[in-house]
Amino acid sequence: MKVLYDTILKATYTGRPNRFVVTLDLNGERVLAHLPNPGRMWELLFTGVTMYIVPHDKPDAKTKYRVVGIERDGVVIMLDTNYSNDVAQHLIENKLISGWEEWRIVRREYTVKLHGTSSRFDLLLTNDKGDEFLLEVKSCTLFSKTGAMFPDAITERGRKHLLHLKELQNEGYHTGVLFLVQWDRAQWFLPDYHTDLEFAKTFKEVAPSLDWKAVAVAWDETFTMPTVTRECSYPSRILDTEAHDSGVYVMVMHLDHDLDLEIGSKGMMHFKAGYYMYVGSAKANLTKRIERHKRKRKKMHWHLDYFRGHCEMIAGLPIRTSWADAECALADAVRGVAEWDVPKFGCSDCNCNSHLFGMSENPIHNKEFMDVVELYRMNMLDEMVE
Q: Which has the closest alpha carbon to 77: 44, 123, 32, 55?
């Protein structure tokens, strides 16, 4: 078995100054490490988790180390996307992917031009009949207890890639996608319609035409080439009911000073400095509702409109769901992890005490809060999968 790295060190995650750099505690020393995976990875990056790093192999690199993996619940997860094609080639050449035993690798980074549009695909495969198989490889690091989703950030490039694969399929090529799910507990896979609804819609449209698979792989601390745990199921019927621009959301904001503010007919209300989580819902146009909340200049309508102009917007987290009672249930769940709430804020049309909650640290980096998001986005789907 091929070992990908000569020297692997364990360190403790402490922060992420930007998309490509993390700060770590390595045996009591603060070090910087390059993060080759630019995904959000909000569900993985929590203070104190174990990361796997290697000495940087480039002498002129800005960081001394490079991240290759992380742990979640004691499970080793590969983060180094530089090796995705190596992993795919290993699995295909060793006939570890059911249904693809006939294929073998011909070339990497293969460019195809069709009707004036060029696309580069990760692998070109062939078989004994001389057929050509254009394969795109994606590393999936967004998962729940038993599910996996891709992507974890909006990817217009990825959506166009799917459409080009479908077009090439119509022109006679054999085309497909291999999702490497870096979580050996994953049993099902879906496009992440919460984060990127347009990608999910496109995936739903083209998936029946493509030869694609999502396989859960298992790693260990040696980062020897992984084994395939299973091919994940594709419960496409969930997309029929859930992948629509409606549901609930959490707006995450930061207020850097104590504030007394008049909130419409509610009068003066007090807000102490900290991070805030506002829970709302939209029966239609969920995307536009979130974008409206992000803007500071607008006509005052909701309670949040008055507060928004005084704080920094951190993130808007959509949760697309057909569950009618999701808003108040989500508010109750967020209340359970928050440190305080603002009484009677944002709940005029329900029996909740509040829909605005606060905590002293950024909720995006708080595991309890992100567990709530994971529950409503993914874990609740388990019952629909079965």
A: 44
